[in-house]
């Protein structure tokens, strides 16, 4: 039952992410410019890839041949999801010194995370959640430009989504709690929905 729950939670996210990507690209092409189209396409694509990775990992988790591979991909997908979420706001609202710096930092940390997970997927387990948190809250260092250029309703959605991700890590680490991993994925899904609404409603021009 636990394994089915672990597949179902991210599986819902994967199913929703496909029309979500299509809608983002269509709306940005209709109302925005090339920056909107590219950044929304990247964000939407990372949603599809990340949730597909989460789902596939739990499907193949106990497979002797593919289990370790999909575990690496699953963990790397979290870095990818965070970087993809930053991309629209850094390329559209914060484009310039702060935007390019944040974009470079978050994607650079993603690449480092990929290498780290490839070689140390079963080691330093406490370090990965700390890196996820650090990446997720990098925007704090650009709070001035963020509050100036990002619409405040979008910032509220970003903050709420970030809190869902952060509090979800409690359940990620709470191994003795039944269905703890499925609960973690539900928190991630809630955070993703809020961030998606921030992009759809407040980044793409109406």
TrEMBL record:
<keyword id="KW-0862">Zinc</keyword>
<feature type="transmembrane region" description="Helical">
    <location>
        <begin position="7"/>
        <end position="29"/>
    </location>
</feature>
<dbReference type="GO" id="GO:0005886">
    <property type="term" value="C:plasma membrane"/>
</dbReference>
<keyword id="KW-1003">Cell membrane</keyword>
<dbReference type="GO" id="GO:0046872">
    <property type="term" value="F:metal ion binding"/>
</dbReference>
<dbReference type="InterPro" id="IPR005744">
    <property type="entry name" value="Hy-lIII"/>
</dbReference>
<feature type="binding site">
    <location>
        <position position="181"/>
    </location>
    <ligand>
        <name>Zn(2+)</name>
    </ligand>
</feature>
<feature type="transmembrane region" description="Helical">
    <location>
        <begin position="35"/>
        <end position="60"/>
    </location>
</feature>
<keyword id="KW-0479">Metal-binding</keyword>
<keyword id="KW-1133">Transmembrane helix</keyword>
<keyword id="KW-0812">Transmembrane</keyword>
<dbReference type="Pfam" id="PF03006">
    <property type="entry name" value="HlyIII"/>
</dbReference>
<feature type="transmembrane region" description="Helical">
    <location>
        <begin position="186"/>
        <end position="204"/>
    </location>
</feature>
<feature type="transmembrane region" description="Helical">
    <location>
        <begin position="98"/>
        <end position="120"/>
    </location>
</feature>
<keyword id="KW-0472">Membrane</keyword>
<feature type="binding site">
    <location>
        <position position="185"/>
    </location>
    <ligand>
        <name>Zn(2+)</name>
    </ligand>
</feature>
<feature type="transmembrane region" description="Helical">
    <location>
        <begin position="127"/>
        <end position="148"/>
    </location>
</feature>
<comment type="similarity">
    <text>Belongs to the UPF0073 (Hly-III) family.</text>
</comment>
<feature type="transmembrane region" description="Helical">
    <location>
        <begin position="154"/>
        <end position="174"/>
    </location>
</feature>
<feature type="transmembrane region" description="Helical">
    <location>
        <begin position="72"/>
        <end position="92"/>
    </location>
</feature>
<dbReference type="GO" id="GO:0140911">
    <property type="term" value="F:pore-forming activity"/>
</dbReference>
<dbReference type="InterPro" id="IPR004254">
    <property type="entry name" value="AdipoR/HlyIII-related"/>
</dbReference>
<feature type="binding site">
    <location>
        <position position="58"/>
    </location>
    <ligand>
        <name>Zn(2+)</name>
    </ligand>
</feature>
<protein>
    <recommendedName>
        <fullName>Hemolysin D</fullName>
    </recommendedName>
</protein>
